[in-house]
Amino acid sequence: MAGLVAALLMVLLAPGLSAAEDLHHPPPRPPPARDGAMALVQELLDRVTAGGPSTAWLSEHLGPPTHPGPPSAAVLDRWRERLLPGAPVGQRLAASPGPVAAVTGPDYQRILVESAPGLSVVVVQSEDGPRISELAWTTCTLCTEPVRFVSDLLDDVARRGGQSHRLLPGVELDLEAHHDRHGLDQDWIGVLSLRNGQAGFLPDLLRGAEVVGANGEIVDVRYADGTRDTWTVRWKAGRWVVDYAGLAEDSPLRMSAAEERAWRDPSRRAREARRAWRPGFAPVAGGAGMELGHAAIDAWPDPRDGTVLVVVLDVDRVLTAVFRVDPATRQVVDRLRAPLADARTQLPLDGWGERWPTALSPDGRRLALAGPNRLWLLDLDSRQSRLLGRGDITWLAWDSGRDPALWSARGRTLQRLDALGMTTRERHEADVIGLAEDADRTWRITSDGSLATADGAVSEQPPLCCGEVVDAAVDPTSSRTLLTCGAGCDSAAVWVDGTRATPIPGAGSAQPGASCSPDGRWFTTGRDGGLLLWATDEARPMATLPGGPFRSARWSPDGRALLTVDGEGRVVWWELSQVVARFSVSDDDPPLP
Fold it and tell me: pTM for the complete prediction?
């Protein structure tokens, strides 16, 4: 056995053959011939124009596959869908003037089919000839590939900001030669990862940077503040990487020993994370919406000025903040520290976003925030916060009285905190999820569809729906309250006026998303795969907002826009007129599920 192992090692370590490269990173094939690559791309464009390439053609010309054998049916289907003439990518390819230029890479040809910035087709060589490897956006026309890599990286940062993680350690920042720097083994790499991921250091640093020169693998970069830097870009294991060991000691990308110590402080990372956070301002659903933020647990339109308060909490609990964003100017107007859980708070990740209810007071001056065993109140004008109480809160709301009081629920226990700080507690037969106010009293809405009074007595009316209420919203123009029904109900929602219930035809859904517009003309209900927009006077769905599931839906003060937060923490500002125009539901459409 020992002899067999020795013989194997001799073969693997023979001159010209590296064991590591042979087993994990085989030497790259030479790039395909330029003419053959251009001809393959022209055939692709012709087939897209003629209606889209067949799966048989794709199976023959995609690759080389990661695993032996042809691409899987799922891979072929995805490529086929992308390359249909009506799909966004297919439209661009169909409009292409043909192969514009070719740039040779280490083991591929990059064929541009548009003037840069635009699409390119990467072609590699297989045993059977040239094959299409990927479609990629690129910012360069005839750049060398090291320059193209850096230029595309900087463009990605400019477009995606903090959501671009291409330069995180181990992704496109090669750290292998620096594992033992300062005698810290790999600990400093963890600090660099924290600095990048939590404080947005690299995306913030590279925003506005540009390539100003190159010499082979050496690319000269100028940052937005005028600082110059030199990056060594290498082709390694089938991808381009920035050689961290090749950076100058004073490179802004590098970390000194003092910086490593400073960045271990969570308060430093939290402060820098608040400073670096920026909204995406990316168009959504063809321009009907605009993304205002990410990693959000909630968002509220401020009734005073129409700005949006985006409440952000990252999974590591380093970035806990409220950002005031102006949708009109696309600016962050203010950055406030939020009194939420810090990194020492232990929480399971399941249902992360739903564990942090918030509520904005009717005057827009106070924001209540609940976290694990804490209830906080943040004064948005004075920027001061105070702890209101302890206990895990499941629901928060303000009433609309002359001196609004804050209501919070922990399951069946309801607590009211008035302006003087006096608290009253109530116990109910089911979980409290909303309030319904009329001229005489404030009813408590419970999850079984009943109305209860302050003493916990349930109204003599039968349950207001099938017995499963998912969400509730108040019509600001009347005393009516909107209840959305669960998936097992045969009504989409119920209007409640006092103890009188009026069902809305449709099917129930387990998704939240109840809201009423300020003028009372519109309301929304949750739906699997989107959000339904209803006209109040017609009691029928007028449009479907795509996406979701949504945690919340709220209206701008003028009623012309709708603000949503989805399950991934993305905040979107929807223009009502655009939603109705693009996603309307006609009478001829099949019934909605």
Answer: 0.74
